Structure prediction request, 150 residues.
Amino acid sequence: MRDIFCHHTSKTTRNRKCVVIGILLYHGSIIVCHLIKTDMENLNISFLSLISLFVPLLMMGISIFYAYKRMSTEAILLVIGSVIVFLTSVFFMFMPYLVYSRNMDTTLTSLYYSVAGTIAFIGSLLFAIGFFMLVLTVIRQSGGADTKKL
Prediction:
């Protein structure tokens, strides 16, 4: 676990980490499909609703690519934050169908939404911290005159 924060990891270590992330995403999609498989005929997701997943998916892809190229603390924060945000976006997309198919109570539904919103906030916060650290690193490396204040 210590080599996650090391700048000089071997290529096989990075490949293992990418495989682990891929396996987690794959199993997450299987769980979502299993939850809604009973009502697949009622699941009419339009193309416009799928567009809302484009930006979280793009940010997750860019973060994983950056972590693959340069493993650092900010890269780990970017990946973790973007994966959390993407998974909660998928949850928010499928939640109305789960509520409808399972005839969930309003209090239970609001509990799910509030927990998912808190998790999405934590993911966004992790991503923002990682992005801020990345910006500070780039500014320091560029050697600007005002970087001493940061």
The helical segments are 11-36, 47-51, 54-69, 73-102, 106-142.
